[in-house]
Design brief:
2 domains
């Protein structure tokens, strides 16, 4: 995704957020859904950091690799 650059699209998004904030039930539903998501930014950072540190042409299947794959699966499931 790229940041919005169209003023009309930005205003549409702001209007949608305002609508959700004004509707207590909708706001609580959205918050409940987001609470169930893992910390996506942290998981992506961990996966990236691991891949940069282990940038080898040979891939070894270790316990650490399995853990990283599980973290990636959690991320994909959340999305």
């Amino acid at each position: 995704m790229r940041p919005l650059i169209s003023v009309e699209q930005i205003n549409d998004r702001l209007d949608a957020i305002e609508d959700i904030n004004n509707d207590t039930f909708a706001r609580d539903c959205v918050r409940a859904k987001f609470r169930k998501l893992p910390d996506i930014e942290r998981l992506i950072g961990k996966i990236l950091s691991y891949s940069v540190q282990n940038n080898n042409k040979v891939i070894y299947f270790e316990d650490v690799s399995l853990i990283k794959l599980k973290e990636f699966k959690t991320l994909l499931t959340a999305l």
